[in-house]
C-alpha cells in the first residue's frame, strides 16, 4: 500500500507505527510527485495543491481531509473516491471558545477589568447566563459539545438540526425551524456547514425575526451571515453583539467595518486552536487507517454533493 502524506513528519511517524509495511511518500506545500505515480491513500492538506488534479490517474481510493468543512475544496476533485474529514476533532476547543465569547458579553470582558480606580467600587451591571436561552444551528460534533457545556451553566439549550430524529442529548430541545430558534435565543451559535442552503442563513429577513438583543456567535463559516444585513441589525440594536471567529472574505481587507464596529468581537478564525489540535487530527486519520486496512467502514465520510 502506498500512502501520500501531506501532513508532515509526525503524521508520517503515526502512519509508520500503524502500517509499517506501507510505503509513505511525504510532500510539502512546494513539492509534487511524479506524473505517473500511484497511491491508494492520500492524507491531504493545502486545498489548492496541484496534486489533486492527479487523483484519478494515481488511483487514490481514499482521501482524508485535515479539517471539517469542505467548502475550500473543488467538489469535482473529491468525487470518485471515499473522502473523509477530521469531523469533531476541534469540538472541545471550539466549544470552549464559544462559552468564553458568551461569558465575555455577559460579564463585559475586558471592559470590566481595571487599569485605574473606577468611579464606583463594588458596583456593576453584569449579565447572568442561568435561565437564558442558547440557540445552536447545527447539532453535529461542535454543536453538541457547545450544548453540553451550556447545560452546565443552567442555560436553556435549543438546537436546530437537519435530521432532528437522529439527535439525542438529554436537556436539549429541538427547535421547529430557524424562525422558532431565533425568536427564543438570547445567544445564537452558528455551527452549521457552509452549503448552498446555509449561505446567508442570517439575512435581513431572518434577523428581523430574532429576539431583540440577541448575541450571535459564528464559529462555522462567514458565508452563513449576510454581513451587510448584520451591520444594519447591529446598528439598530436588534443584535446586541456579534462574536465572529469566521467572516467573509478571510482575511478581511484593511479598513473593513468589522474591525472597528463597537458591537463586534472579531477573531482570526482561531477557535480551533489547542495544544492538542494536530494530535487529534493525526488520531482521526490513524483510526480510519486501521479501518481501511481491515476493509471496514470509515468514520467521518463526506457527502460531497451535500457539502459536508
What does this 3D model show about the protein?
The chain has 308 residues and is an alpha/beta fold. The protein has two domains: 2-88 and 275-293, Rossmann fold (3-Layer(aba) Sandwich); 91-266, 3-Layer(aba) Sandwich (Rossmann fold), CATH 3.40.50. The protein contains nine helices and twelve strands. The strands form two sheets. Strands 8-7-6-9-10-11-12 form a seven-stranded parallel β-sheet, with helices on both faces. Strands 2-1-3-4-5 form a five-stranded parallel β-sheet, with helices on one face. The longest helix has 17 residues, at 277-293. The mean pLDDT is 95.
N-to-C span: 28 Å
Shape: elongated
The average pLDDT value, as a whole number, equals 95
What are the segments in which pLDDT stays under 50 over at least 5 consecutive residues? none
- Percent helix: 25-40%
**SSE topology string:** EHEEHEHEHEHEEHEHEHEEH
Total of DSSP H or I helical runs spanning 4+ residues: 9
Number of separate domains:
2
At CATH level 3, the topology of the largest domain is Rossmann fold
CATH architecture of the largest domain: 3-Layer(aba) Sandwich
* CATH homology group of the largest domain: NAD(P)-binding Rossmann-like Domain
Amino acid at each position: 500500500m502506498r500512502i501520500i502524506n501531506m501532513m508532515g513528519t509526525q503524521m508520517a511517524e503515526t502512519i509508520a507505527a500503524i502500517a509499517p509495511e506501507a510505503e509513505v511518500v511525504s510532500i510539502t506545500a512546494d513539492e509534487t510527485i511524479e506524473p505517473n505515480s500511484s497511491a491508494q491513500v492520500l492524507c491531504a492538506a493545502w486545498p489548492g495543491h496541484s496534486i489533486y488534479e492527479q487523483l484519478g490517474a494515481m488511483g487514490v481510493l481514499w482521501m482524508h481531509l485535515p479539517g471539517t468543512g469542505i467548502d475550500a475544496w473543488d467538489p469535482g476533485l473529491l468525487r470518485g473516491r471515499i473522502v473523509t474529514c477530521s469531523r469533531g476533532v476541534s469540538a472541545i476547543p471550539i466549544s470552549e471558545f464559544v462559552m468564553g465569547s458568551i461569558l465575555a458579553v455577559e460579564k463585559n470582558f475586558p471592559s470590566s477589568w481595571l487599569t485605574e480606580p473606577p468611579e464606583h467600587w463594588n458596583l456593576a451591571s453584569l449579565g447572568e447566563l442561568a435561565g437564558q436561552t442558547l440557540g445552536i444551528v447545527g447539532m453535529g460534533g461542535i454543536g453538541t459539545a457547545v450544548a453540553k457545556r451550556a447545560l452546565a451553566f443552567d442555560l436553556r439549550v435549543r438546537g436546530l438540526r437537519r435530521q432532528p430524529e437522529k439527535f439525542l442529548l438529554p436537556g436539549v430541545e429541538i427547535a421547529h425551524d430557524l424562525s422558532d430558534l431565533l425568536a427564543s435565543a438570547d445567544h445564537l451559535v452558528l455551527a452549521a456547514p457552509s452549503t448552498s442552503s446555509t449561505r446567508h442563513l442570517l439575512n435581513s429577513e431572518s434577523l428581523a425575526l430574532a429576539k431583540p438583543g440577541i448575541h450571535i456567535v459564528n464559529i462555522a463559516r462567514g458565508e452563513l451571515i449576510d454581513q451587510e444585513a448584520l451591520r444594519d441589525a447591529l446598528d439598530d440594536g436588534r443584535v446586541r453583539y456579534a462574536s465572529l471567529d469566521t467572516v467573509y472574505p478571510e482575511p478581511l481587507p484593511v479598513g473593513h467595518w468589522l474591525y472597528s464596529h463597537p458591537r463586534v468581537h472579531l477573531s482570526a478564525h482561531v477557535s480551533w486552536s489547542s495544544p492538542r489540535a494536530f494530535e487529534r487530527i493525526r488520531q482521526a486519520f490513524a483510526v480510519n487507517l486501521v479501518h481501511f486496512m481491515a476493509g471496514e467502514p470509515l468514520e467521518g465520510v463526506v457527502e460531497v454533493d451535500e457539502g459536508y
